[in-house]
Fold this protein.
Amino acid sequence: MKRFDFILFLVLAFAGKAFAQTDSTSMPKEKPNTFWSEYVLYNGDTIPLSYLTEVVVLERPTFETNEERRAYFRLRRKVLKVYPYAVIASEKLTEVTEATADLKKKRKVRKYSKKIEKYLREEFEAELKKLTRTEGMILIKLIYRQTGYTTWDLIKDYRGGINAVFYQTMAKFYDADLKATYDPFTVEEDAMIETILQRAFIAGELQHQETPVNFSDFRTNSNMLDKVREKANEEEEQENEKE
């Protein structure tokens, strides 16, 4: 498993590239439940106004079988575990792009990125060793969610194409794909992950972070997961009919 641990380390080490182009801020702070000195007059009475924090209510995901339910909660544990690493990657490593913005030679950029690698190895290597293969693959997807770039692209930019090919080949031995993207609007597993994330953001279990793609539809449209499932089932039925 040491090789796969190193792949996971690379996922973090090269994930800060593109997110520097966007704001890596947490969810805007909402107004506290504070009394405001505003009022309205109604039939001669003075009625004070106060502003309450928005409350978002989502329907619970539905499951056809107990196995589906168990799979959901297994996935939930893994997502809650690895998402903070994706946040760390996009927040902490934006300094790579900022610090190397004026460096024209790729050799100097890669030299600087190696310093970041060393820092990350000292900080997170022990924790990454505890991640399973499945958790590593979820992390790769979430890195794409947070930055808009695949891990393949990030490694290629910072270590060159030869290294990218090498690490991709290594990842394949563990059923991982450094070119993996994230599309919860069409892929059922990704839709499940996004549902888990949105519910965790609302419950305060995870820190929300702005992303290149807006996933608010999973808040405003509570049956988005069901829609993706239905589409996946329809496509599967069409494929079966062709066979």
About this structure: Residues 194 and 215 are 8 Å apart (CA to CA). DSSP finds ten helices and two strands in the chain.
